[in-house]
Write a structure and sequence with these properties.
The complex is a heterotetramer.
Chain B: H1 2-22, H2 40-46, H3 51-54, H4 69-76, H5 89-107, E1 115-116, H6 129-136, H7 144-151, H8 168-176, H9 183-190
Helix pairs in contact in B: 4-5
Chain C: H1 12-24, H2 29-55, H3 70-81, H4 83-94, H5 100-125, H6 152-187, H7 198-210, H8 218-251, H9 263-289, H10 298-329, H11 332-343, H12 347-359, H13 367-370, H14 373-400, H15 415-438, H16 444-460
Helix pairs in contact in C: 1-16, 2-15, 3-5, 3-9, 3-14, 4-5, 4-8, 4-9, 5-6, 5-15, 6-7, 6-8, 8-9, 9-10, 9-14, 10-11, 11-12, 12-14
Chain D: E1 46-47, E2 63-71, E3 74-83, E4 86-92, H1 105-108, H2 110-114, E5 124-127, E6 130-133, H3 136-146, E7 151-155, H4 161-174, E8 177-180, H5 186-198, E9 205-206, E10 213-217, H6 228-236, E11 247-252, H7 257-260, E12 264-267, H8 273-284, H9 294-301, H10 305-312, H11 316-328, E13 333-337, H12 349-360, E14 368-369, H13 383-395, E15 400-404, H14 408-411, H15 417-421, E16 426-431, H16 436-439, E17 443-446, E18 455-459, E19 462-466, H17 479-486, H18 493-505, H19 510-516, E20 518-520, E21 550-556, H20 569-573, E22 581-582, E23 587-589, H21 591-596, E24 604-609, E25 612-620, E26 628-633, E27 666-667, E28 672-673, E29 677-679, E30 681-685, E31 692-693, E32 708-710, H22 711-716, E33 743-748, H23 757-765, H24 773-778, E34 786-792, E35 801-802, E36 808-809, E37 821-827, H25 836-840, E38 846-848, E39 854-856, H26 866-870, E40 877-878, E41 908-909, H27 915-927, H28 940-944, E42 950-954, H29 961-966, E43 971-972, E44 984-987, E45 989-991
Parallel strand pairs in D: 7-8, 7-15, 10-11, 10-13, 11-12, 15-16, 16-17, 21-26, 23-25, 32-45, 33-44
Antiparallel strand pairs in D: 2-3, 3-4, 5-6, 5-17, 9-14, 18-19, 19-20, 21-29, 22-31, 23-26, 24-25, 24-30, 27-28, 33-42, 34-37, 35-36, 38-39, 40-41, 43-44
Helix pairs in contact in D: 4-17, 5-12, 8-10, 8-11, 8-12, 10-11
Classes of the chains: A alpha+beta, B mainly alpha, C mainly alpha, D alpha/beta.
């Protein structure tokens, strides 16, 4: 049985890298190793940055799983229910018409639309949830990556806890290619 | 949150504007200028002339009928003209002038005023007055009680303006309510349905 | 596990440069030439459609028995084309088919544009296009009067719009990491040229907005991967449902030749068939034009050739079934319609379809032929012609001689019909040409991921 | 009584006339109350009331007037429906003792003649080559001045006693002579024949309802011969297989409507009808009352069945069978003959033989009576008189010629009338609309339509008054008024009719006459014809050897007739009942000839006959002998296409519709020859042509749509018309209840003659647009009721004939389709209870009413046309173009029925079971607190059917006619197996052979 706490944890959100240290590493493998070390060192606020999803990241970051699917499921049921209830209300109560001699509540004919609305609600809810939890959206378009090449080929680990560079170095060891500091969420106002 | 509110307001304003521009014609309150300043308040209100005196075909025809000028002249021939004690002189003069216009510009020239239709149904709506009056007019009641649901009380209007939207929803709501039991039983009893062919053919 | 045959062995920067650099150059003459032709075809279509809006649908060759003509043929054809993209990105994703990685972006784009093209047809096909909003169930002042939920055409409205919007968000969400990559590539100077000129500034602005603040966070990636999985799972039944619903337009009617229970699977198979043929056509052109042979290798093309062979045989099976069912039905009208397909006035369309759809895919049995780009290209074109004729056969030959012999008539397309048909290709390719010049036509992040995960697997010992 | 009949002449007719309806004042300001946003876009409509409303005219309520159409072909009594003073629909006058409400398509179509925008709008005067308007005060004295020297009046036959008498007076005043010609030759043939046979030139009254066996030789009495309305009514009244059903045998060259309805049809070679008649007479002679007459014997002896076979192509046995059948029906048979296609150069010859046959069969006095005749006197000039007159004209000795409502330049083209007319100094034309003859005139006196002015008619012993139901739309006068004006009579024609003629005929008084529309003067009853002069036969010269080569018959078409009212889109839009061709006349060729010359329908051929060489399109017509070709006349008139040029686009010649068949006609010493004209060659021309054919496939493909049984089989098993067990599924759903009325339409295929009157009646009632020839070619006809015509061989119980060894004979490949059976089947919307069309409409524009109608809301329709696709009966029509707005020209819009929405471009329309009539009667019944009764309600097609083949009513109550018919063994639904449960019931056809 899944606990409520687990679900809540599974709906974790993105933390803005507003302070702390960024550890740039050479490869995705190094990143996995590094983040595992960071987690094991008891760092509270940390994240990784990479140009692509890396297998094993969940495990390395100590996240059991993403409970995004729950949102999908709720939305899917909402879609089905909405479609069925709206069509039944319209055909039975609001404006019943005799169409082709079929009964007003012609449930087999509702199936395609119920299906479509299920999918529509579910997919939009999923995407919206990712936007919410990943703090994505047009209003975040000024956000910059923690280092210039992080969306190209650089993998890095961000540590948001208060610690010194030395402490960071100690945790990640020689996996670090470079360590630099962040003071605030990097933004780009060049076009404003 | 504030931003969401802002967006919602923007969307609402946009939809509102779209509705005003592309929505259905604004019907209520429509009171076009008429060629002749006929006053329903005086005739139907003050003098309590029954609607059917002028709209004489309303109980048996599709159309209520706009009276011919001869109907006006029944009363307004010179002998009957002076019975109204006018509140003031200018009022009297105005009425005098109007009746003069009626008799000189129209009656003696064999011309009818070109009225602008106020309660104008689209061409694809087949509205017939007679069965509606039949259904709405309770025995012993004044004719106007049957007219008021759709036309409002014209006896209180100096200038007649449209009182109800007379759109399809207006019609359908009335067609539905008599029994609220679904259209089939109702149709069998009263011949009122909400199927399309009731009004559109 | 060793590296897959699809491994490129390229660095991330190299991958990025290969894919993005064609977009950073000013388009070449060939692109402009093609684009001009396609745009003018699209404009021709818009003009013709405008003319029918003003004058009436009488400009088309339709008549009473054949009330649906080339517009509906084109509609079904383009919806069919629009199947391959989502199929590649969703179903092949669920089946862990790695070769989908390099082709899914362009195929999905093709889907979007094909559905856009397809979606035009029902709208321009109605007698009163200015009243087309009646098909949406919205509260109104008419009672309110709603729509008829029993109509397959209404299901179509829901199916096509759902399919379009889900495909669009799926495609867009897939693009976001790449857009972030583009944004940063333009911002930070690891690309030739700075953001200086007005045009580049504008482009940068758009890309920045579209990238919605993507920074490649691991937490987001975890949700993102889940989302891709969820969307793929949702899109899989959806992609199968779309052509099913389209086939309901025909299957739920009473017209002989339309009224067939085999239609849903038959249409879906046909859609995949034609969709893959179109993907093949487009990929062969794209890889050549943008020198992406390494990314879209012969192995990719061969895989698609095999899919064409399989779906082609499924379609052939459906054709056979239809005829057998008609023969077995003891229904004179039904039997007549099928005999009429074989030998009636539109027999040429049937036999064209037969040759293209039933015969031509069997060339794919030969490894030599299915690894020959020219052959593949020709077959893909032939299959698409065949699939267009399949819809022609279904729509026209069923209608032109149905129940009442007294109403039988011929459908003779006018040049407006043909103009809109040709113009729809212009419309589609205009969008596609714009796409390949503005957005990465290969999913960069996914290619990088596959490359990186090879390493991860190698080093950490799990896949 | 639902008919209110009153004279409304000289009344102000403007009421609630929409002014600029179509011009919306967009963004028209409403009130300023709504925050300054005036977005009221309301179409502004004006109401113009009567100055003083006549009590008879009530806005919104139709007024009916009984009147009559008296024209050159006879008198047609009609009931005219007017709304707000405008006639909108012609209906049958059910109270009429002879017509019994029968009206044919031609008369229904006259409503559009009234609102024809191309009519003369005033008197005209020619200066140079152009006409200019003038007024009556000016033109009458000018015409009077011309009435000197040799004055002639030429006209078509008249049935109006008042017109005849004022004309007679006029002729006397100016010392003029009157020439009358009959364009089709039908009346002339009968009158001349009867003159010779009986010394009494009348067209007698026929009693088709009293004849058990009817033989028609070339006479298309159901379509174009004399009075098809009366004859159809009479004929159809005996088509019930349950009583004593009549039998119709037709011998004709070209398939006519009557031939299509025949129980046995004998295809004879063109021009050999006389031989056939003579051969038949010679078979009947022995044992008859004339057996003793040597003149007769001598005249007939030559025509042995063998000779008849060699000349006409009718098998000896067939002829003998007919003869013995006739002999078995002595006194109970009727033989008729004649018509345009029997006009063989000897006027009246066929009628003489027919008279002889009828006399031998003792039909005279029983099925043919001289009492209350159709035409009581002969006013038609003989051919010799006509020839002499044209010669006079050519000689230049005619000073003034008045052409009265006719088109001799076209009709008498074989005489060279047009050339002769140039020699006449003053040509004065009286008529409604321009034609070839009016163009040659110096003065045009515009005459009014019969619905606008006074006239009268006398036929069948009944005096009819033709009263105006609308004020003259244009500045026109009735012909009677013109004649009176030309002879300085101060009296108007109205007064003349009332005081002189009506008082003579109508004993019930003027008021009653106007209310009834007619007064019975003479009742028909058994009375013998005058004594027959047997030796009249000796003058008849029938071909006694086979006619060589191709032979052409010119016939009269059902829709266009002689073409005098051709400027009417609906006459052209109505498909020809047999060929289903619209907007064209075509050469009908036999399938055999077509195969030989490798021509097919829509090919263009060049036909050479005499001096004429004409290119024209072809329709391959089963039922013709190989050497017979046929063509309808009436087409090719210059001013036939004035209405709307876009409707005739792509016609063979610009500004002309069809070709003039009279080019082929021949003149003999005795008269006109339209029959058996020798054609020297028919050659295929390599040209493509788009023919407005509305039905392209003639076979039922064994689908049992129009079902047929043999009478003998039917007597044994009343269900024998049905070949298959009708599968009617139960369906998944219980269906919706229909507690009140439930409308049903029953069509008796046995009574339907295919005459298409219902089609035109429906056009008029339901505002159906005419779409023109190219649209018809594409298959976009708009007609809500179409009459399907199928050619089938006789279908046996097992659907095919069986040869001696028991194998089925497939005759569908047989090119010689001489014995093709023709079935007509009117198809309207079937109002299916489980309608496939309703399910598929995405916007619910079509749905079902509780009283069982399949309803169509045009304003909801977005035009996906899915319903039309999914309709198994293909009865849904789409408005491919805008058919009204900007296309209809004043005053054509007044012919529109105000109770029916005029459909715009882009919507589907279809038969509504005349829902406007149902709604009106339902409301009327409701006002009177009673249910709708069966008698209240008739659909336009039911009312329009002269054969009473269509019955409409409530199937829910047990005792209505339609409910009873529904239970009949002959009743069936088409395509019952797809479980649509139609509300239209067909009754299978029973052939009496």
């Amino acid at each position: 049985m899944v606990s409520f706490k687990e679900i809540k944890e599974g709906l974790f959100t993105f933390d803005e890298p507003d302070k702390g240290w960024v550890v740039e590493v050479k490869t995705a493998v190094d990143m996995l190793k590094a983040v595992e070390k960071v987690r094991k060192a008891g760092v509270k606020r940390f994240d990784t940055f990479s140009p692509f999803p890396v297998h094993g990241l969940e495990k390395a970051m100590g996240i059991k799983r993403s409970w995004l699917t729950l949102i999908t499921m709720i939305a899917a049921f909402t879609g089905t229910t909405f479609a069925l209830s709206a069509m039944s209300y319209i055909d039975l109560v609001d404006y019943p018409l005799n169409i082709g001699g079929k009964p007003s509540f012609a449930w087999p004919a509702y199936i395609p639309i119920m299906f479509e609305l299920t999918i529509l609600f579910a997919s939009f809810a999923t995407v919206i949830a990712v936007w919410k939890m990943g703090k994505l959206g047009i209003r975040y378009n000024h956000r910059r990556p923690v280092s210039p090449t992080v969306t190209c080929d650089m993998c890095s680990v961000w540590i948001g806890d208060d610690m010194t560079k030395e402490e960071v170095k100690k945790i990640v060891g020689d996996l670090a290619k470079e360590i630099h500091k962040v003071d605030a969420t990097p933004t780009d106002n060049s076009l404003d | 949150m504030k931003k969401a509110l802002k967006i919602t307001i923007n969307v609402l304003v946009f939809l509102g504007l779209a509705w005003l521009l592309f929505g259905p014609a604004k019907q209520i309150g429509y009171a076009p200028e008429q060629p002749f300043a006929y006053n329903h308040k005086i005739h139907a209100g003050d003098y309590k002339i029954d609607c059917q005196y002028c709209h004489s075909t309303v109980t048996y025809s599709k159309k209520a009928g706009i009276p011919g000028t001869n109907v006006c002249m029944n009363c307004h021939s010179s002998g009957v003209l002076g019975f109204r004690p006018f509140a003031n002189k200018s009022d009297g003069k105005r009425v005098q002038k109007l009746i003069g216009e009626l008799s000189n510009n129209y009656w003696s020239k064999s011309k009818s005023p070109e009225w602008t239709r106020i309660h104008n149904m689209p061409d694809h709506v087949r509205f017939s007055h007679a069965p509606h009056v039949k259904a709405l007019l309770k025995p012993g009641a004044e004719t106007k009680t049957a007219c008021i649901p759709c036309h409002g009380d014209v006896a209180t209007m100096d200038v007649v303006a449209q009182q109800e939207s007379l759109n399809m929803g207006f019609c359908v709501n009335c067609h539905r309510t008599p029994t609220d039991k679904g259209f089939v039983a109702e149709y069998a009893k009263n011949g009122v349905g909400t199927n399309c062919g009731m009004c559109h053919y | 596990m060793s590296t897959s045959i699809y491994s490129l062995g390229k660095s991330n920067v190299q991958i990025e440069t290969d894919i993005l650099s064609p977009m950073e150059r000013f388009p070449g003459k060939l692109w402009w030439f093609t684009f001009t032709i396609m745009l003018s075809l699209a404009l021709m279509m818009i003009t013709l459609v405008g003319w029918t809006f003003v004058e009436g649908l009488g400009l088309l060759g339709l008549n009473n028995p054949v009330n649906w003509g080339l517009y509906i043929v084109n509609f079904v054809f383009w919806v069919g084309i629009g199947h391959a993209g989502t199929l590649i990105s969703a179903i092949l994703y669920l089946f862990r088919q790695r070769w989908r990685t390099t082709i899914n972006r362009a195929a999905e784009a093709m889907t979007i544009f094909a559905v856009m093209t397809a979606g035009l047809f029902p709208l321009i096909h109605v007698g009163r296009p200015w009243m087309v909003f009646f098909i949406f169930p919205y509260p109104n002042e008419r009672g309110p009067l709603w729509v008829n939920f029993k109509s397959p055409l209404l299901w179509d409205v829901f199916a096509i719009s759902t399919y379009f919007s889900v495909s669009l968000i799926f495609w867009y969400m897939g693009l976001v990491p790449d857009l972030a990559n583009m944004r940063d590539r333009m911002k930070f100077e690891h690309v030739p040229g700075k953001i200086s000129s007005w045009g580049r500034k504008l482009k940068y602005g758009f890309v920045r907005i579209l990238a919605i603040g993507w920074v490649g966070s691991g937490k987001t990636w975890i949700h993102y991967e889940k989302m891709v999985m969820v969307l793929a799972s949702l899109a899989t039944p959806l992609v199968l449902s779309v052509h099913t619903v389209v086939s309901f337009d025909f299957a739920t009617s009473v017209i002989p030749g339309w009224h067939a229970t085999i239609f849903p699977p038959y249409f879906v198979a046909g859609a995949i068939y034609s969709g893959f043929a179109m993907v093949l056509t487009i990929m062969i052109i794209t890889r050549k034009a943008f020198k992406l042979q390494e990314y879209i290798s012969m192995k990719h093309l061969e895989n698609m050739g095999i899919i064409i062979l399989v779906t082609g045989m499924m379609v052939s099976f459906a054709y056979t079934t239809e005829f057998i069912v008609a023969a077995y039905s003891a229904n004179k009208v039904e039997q007549y319609v099928f005999m009429n397909r074989l030998q009636g006035p539109y027999a040429w369309a049937f036999w064209t379809m037969f040759a293209a759809n039933v015969v031509s895919p069997h060339f794919m049995w030969s490894k030599k032929l299915r690894t020959n780009v020219v052959v593949l290209f020709l077959i893909s074109i032939v299959v698409n012609i065949g699939m267009w004729f399949e819809r022609f056969v279904i729509v026209i030959t069923s209608l032109h001689r149905d129940y009442m012999p007294s109403s039988w008539d011929m459908f003779i397309p006018t040049w407006v019909d043909w103009g809109v048909f040709v113009g729809s290709f212009g419309f589609f390719f205009t969008w596609y040409l714009l796409f390949v010049r503005t957005l990465p036509s290969i999913a960069i992040a996914e290619v990088k991921m596959d490359e990186a995960n090879d390493l991860v697997a190698k080093e950490l010992g799990h896949h | 009584m639902r008919t209110e009949k009153r004279n409304i002449k000289n009344k102000n007719l403007n009421i609630e006339k929409p002014v600029n309806r179509k011009k919306f004042l967009a963004f028209m300001g409403g009130t300023l109350g709504v925050a300054g946003l005036n977005c009221a876009r309301k179409p502004v409509e004006k109401i113009i009331p009567y100055l003083s409303r006549p009590p008879a005219v009530q806005p919104g309520i139709a007024t009916y007037y009984a009147t009559a159409r008296a024209y050159s072909e006879g008198v047609a009594p009609v009931l005219v429906k007017t709304r707000e003073g405008k006639p909108i629909k012609i209906e049958g006058l059910a109270e009429h003792p002879v017509f019994k409400g029968a009206v044919i398509a031609d008369t229904y179509a006259t409503i559009w003649d009234l609102y024809d925008k191309d009519r003369f709008k005033s008197a005209m005067k020619k200066s140079g080559s152009t006409f200019s308007k003038t007024d009556w005060a000016e033109v009458i004295p000018e015409v009077k001045k011309a009435l000197t020297g040799n004055v002639r009046v030429i006209s078509k036959p008249s049935y109006s006693p008042s017109e005849s008498s004022v004309l007679k007076k006029f002729l006397n005043t100016v010392n003029a002579r009157h020439i009358v010609y009959d364009p089709s030759g039908t009346q002339q043939g009968i009158l001349t024949g009867n003159e010779k046979s009986f010394k009494k030139a009348i067209i007698p009254q026929y009693a088709f309802d009293k004849a058990d066996l009817i033989l028609s030789i070339e006479a298309d009495f159901l379509g174009s011969w004399l009075r098809p309305d009366i004859f159809t009514k009479q004929f159809a009244s005996r088509r019930s297989p349950n009583g004593k059903m009549n039998r119709l045998v037709v011998a004709e060259a070209v398939m006519s409507l009557t031939g299509a309805n025949a129980d046995t049809r004998l295809a004879i070679a063109a021009g050999t009808h006389l031989t056939f008649a003579m051969g038949l007479a010679s078979l009947l002679l022995p044992g008859s009352m004339l057996a003793g007459s040597t003149e007769v014997k001598n005249a007939l002896s030559k025509y042995s069945p063998k000779l008849v076979e060699s000349v006409t192509g009718v098998a000896e046995s067939d002829l003998k069978n007919i003869a013995s059948e006739l002999m078995a029906n002595v006194g109970k048979s009727l033989v008729v003959g004649g018509g345009t296609s029997a006009r063989d150069g000897q006027e009246g010859s066929l009628q003489i033989v027919i008279n002889l046959i009828n006399e031998m069969l003792r039909n005279h006095g029983k099925t043919i009576t001289p009492v209350a005749p159709i035409k009581g006197s002969n006013d038609i000039s003989t051919s010799q008189e006509l020839f002499a007159f044209v010669a006079e004209m050519k000689a230049g000795s005619i000073n003034t010629l008045i052409i009265d409502r006719s088109n001799p330049v076209y009709d008498l083209m074989p005489l060279g009338f047009g050339d002769a007319l140039t020699k006449v100094k003053n040509v004065i034309f009286i008529g409604e609309r321009p034609n070839e003859s009016s163009e040659a005139a110096g003065h045009v006196l515009a005459s009014s339509h019969y619905l606008e002015d006074w006239s009268d008619g006398y036929s069948c012993g009944i005096y009819h008054v033709s009263q105006p139901v609308i004020q003259n739309i244009f500045d026109t006068k009735s012909a009677g008024d013109i004649w009176l004006a030309l002879q300085n009579q101060p009296e108007d024609f109205h007064g003349f009719i009332q005081n002189n003629t009506a008082s003579r005929y109508a004993s019930g008084g003027w008021g009653k006459l106007l209310a009834d529309g007619f007064a019975v003067v003479e009742k028909n009853g058994p009375a013998n014809m005058p004594r027959l002069i047997p030796n009249a036969i000796s003058s008849v010269k029938a071909p006694d050897s086979p006619l060589d080569g191709q032979r052409l018959n010119i016939f009269l078409s059902v829709g266009i007739g002689d073409g005098s009212a051709g400027n009417n889109a609906y006459r052209h839009e109505m498909p020809d009942p047999i060929t289903k061709v619209t907007w064209d006349n075509v050469l009908l060729v036999s399938p055999e000839l077509a195969k030989e010359k490798s021509i097919e329908t829509e090919s263009i051929v060049q036909v050479k006959a005499g001096d004429a060489a004409v290119e024209l399109p072809v329709v391959v017509q089963p039922g013709l002998q190989k050497n017979t070709v046929g063509i309808a006349f009436g087409y090719g008139q210059k001013n036939m296409t004035n209405f709307r040029k876009d409707l005739v686009k792509g016609a063979l010649k610009d500004n002309e519709l069809g070709i003039n068949a009279l080019q082929f006609a021949k003149i003999t010493a005795d008269g006109f020859s339209y029959s058996g004209i020798k054609v020297s060659s028919i050659t295929k021309v390599n040209k493509s042509y788009k023919l407005g054919l509305v039905q392209k496939h003639g076979s039922q493909e064994k689908r049992y749509i129009a079902r047929i049984a043999k009478l003998s089989d039917y007597k044994k098993d009343p269900k024998s018309g049905h070949f298959e067990h009708d599968l009617e599924g139960k369906g998944l759903y219980p269906g919706h209840p229909h507690p009140g009325n439930r409308w049903n339409l029953n069509i008796d295929l046995n009574k339907c003659t295919g005459c298409s009157a219902c089609v035109v009646s429906c056009f008029s009632e339901n505002n159906i647009p005419a779409v023109g020839r190219l649209e018809n070619w594409r298959g976009r006809e708009m007609s809500w009721i179409r009459i399907d015509r199928y050619y089938d061989y006789y279908l046996d119980k097992h659907d095919h004939e069986i040869d001696k060894s028991g194998k089925p004979i497939d005759r569908s490949k047989d090119v010689n389709m001489l014995q093709a059976n023709v079935h007509f089947q009117p198809v309207t919307c079937q109002h299916c209870e489980q309608a496939p069309c309703e399910n598929v409409c995405p916007v619910a524009a079509t749905q079902h009413s509780p009283d069982g109608l399949n309803e169509m809301a045009y304003n909801r329709c977005i035009g996906t046309r899915y319903c039309a696709d999914n309709c198994p009966y293909k009865v849904r029509k789409f408005n491919w173009f805008e058919n009204w707005e900007n296309k209809i020209k004043d005053p054509e819009q007044y012919a529109l029925n105000p109770d029916v929405t005029v459909r715009s471009r882009g919507v589907i329309e279809k038969c509504s079971f005349c829902i406007q009539r149902i709604a009106e009667k339902r409301q009327e019944a409701r006002l009177q607190n009673r249910p709708i009764s069966e008698d209240d309600l008739k659909t336009a097609c039911e009312q329009g059917c002269p054969a009473d083949a269509i019955t409409f009513g409530d199937i829910n109550s047990k005792d209505t006619k339609v409910a009873k018919l529904d239970k009949d063994k002959r009743s069936y639904k088409i395509f019952a197996e797809i479980n649509t449960r139609p509300m239209v019931t067909f009754m299978s056809k029973v052939k009496n052979h």
